[in-house]
Amino acid sequence: MRPTDKAQRIHGILDRLYPEPPIPLLHTDPFSLLVAVALSAQTTDARVNLVTPALFRRAPTPEAMAALEVEEILGFIRTCGLAPAKSKNLRRMSELLVERHSGVVPQSFAELEALPGVGHKTASVVMSQAFGVPAFAVDTHIHRLAARWGLSDGHSVERTERDLKALFPESSWNRLHLQIIYFGREHCPARSHDPEVCPICEWAFVREPTPAKARKRGAAAEKEKEKRSTTKATSKRSSPTRSGPGATVKTTGAKKAAATKKVAAKKKVAATKKAATKKAAKKPAKKPTKKPAKKPTATKKPAKKPATKTATKATKKPAKKPAKKPTATKKPAKKPATKTATKATKKPAKKPAKKPAKKPTATKKPAKKPATKTATKATKKPTATKKAATKTATKKAATKEGD
Predict the structure, then answer these.
(1) 153 tagged catalytic
(2) Which of 94-103, 366-375, 379-388 has the highest mean pLDDT?
(3) Domain 3-204: which CATH class?
(4) Contact 196, 178 (CB under 8 A)
(5) Residue 376: left if φ>0, alpha if ψ -120 to 50, beta else—which one?
(6) Where are the domains of the chain?
């Protein structure tokens, strides 16, 4: 079905359901309508209708609204969305109406949109509902349903307004604005909607693209156009001798193949670098654990304790030798009265004098203790030797005399 045919059918259904739709916002004049529409941004109409009666009793005219403080206006509209900003805009808007337009709401889009807190949608509502000027104000309900019914692509509010104005007659714009709003609230909600039950969606439903998707589609189309233009320019530069579609296909194919090869090579290099870094990170963690385990084994082998033991043994052994020999040397300590005894004692005294003089140098300390013990033994023995020596001496003397 063409969009024009779809628009005619939708128009007939809306006229049958809502022949004379009322304005949902409570107001008494253009100023009160302007204030109510300005407050309806990011707020439901029901919430605005709860707030405006007390505000209009306190300030029914632009002069009275301009005389109020911002805090007082905020106290009336605190439950509305964006209340702090709206309170400032209402006071400044009232001041400008008094200064520029002598307290009267202007009847032009440019002058209305120049006021604080008044946009194109607010100006369109005031111009159409207060002054009867044809205007198609697009709010959230109208923007959503136009995309759902396939009357616009939902790219932007401006595009939706332009498409709807092209499909519907100008005389029905003001009424269609209110009809679509009421239909969206009662029959075609944004969530949990069943198209088979809706009197319009059961035959006109289209899966509307979201604004983000519509923007992406437009951006993608523009990129494709740019790519085509660039490929044509590059193909002409790369193949000046050849002409025709075959030459462009070859050049583009070769460039794509080269680009893919470069990408693959970069990926391989990156993979090898990652692997090398991982290995390098793992190796230092293993080496420190092995080195400390080997070093203690090497330090235990060159133990110096056995050397001390051998040294002590070596020191003890020479201590025994001089202990035995001095016993033989000190036996003839006392000279006998006879000459023969002196000759016999001189021979053993020469031998031990040379040997102990060299060896005790390494073991001077242990040689002192055994010397005392052996000296005591040596002092005891000469008593027996003296007797034997005297006996032998007397016998020799007797024999000489006998001869």
Answers:
(1) no
(2) 94-103
(3) mainly alpha
(4) no
(5) alpha
(6) 3-204, 330-402
